[in-house]
Amino acid sequence: PEDADVANVGKLLEAAKRGDRDALRRLLDAAVDVNGADYDRRTALHLAAAEGELDAVRFLLIDGGADVTAGDYDKRTALHLAAAEGHVDAVRFLVDRGANVDAVDRWHGTPLRDA
Question: What is the CATH T-level fold of the domain 2-114, as seen in this structure?
Fold first, then answer.
């Protein structure tokens, strides 16, 4: 069962990266952990935000209940990644959903500085 959980979290992360809402819905309906993470502690929300997949970001937060404050291995949030990649719409949405603009990563950077 643990191997299946890891495989399903991997599928969730890939679906988020591609912005595949149908796959995200199927996986979450199958009780895959929306906050499951990869080896760098990146969640589906991190990957969707980094790719600028706004529909996936919306789905993960609104329908999936993803943790907008989750930090990866470097303490970077989805907001850090969206800001660093210049995904303005994702940044706005994340902030509207409670992302902390003053969150500090391990290099003492904030999303505002990364923008």
Answer: 1.25.40
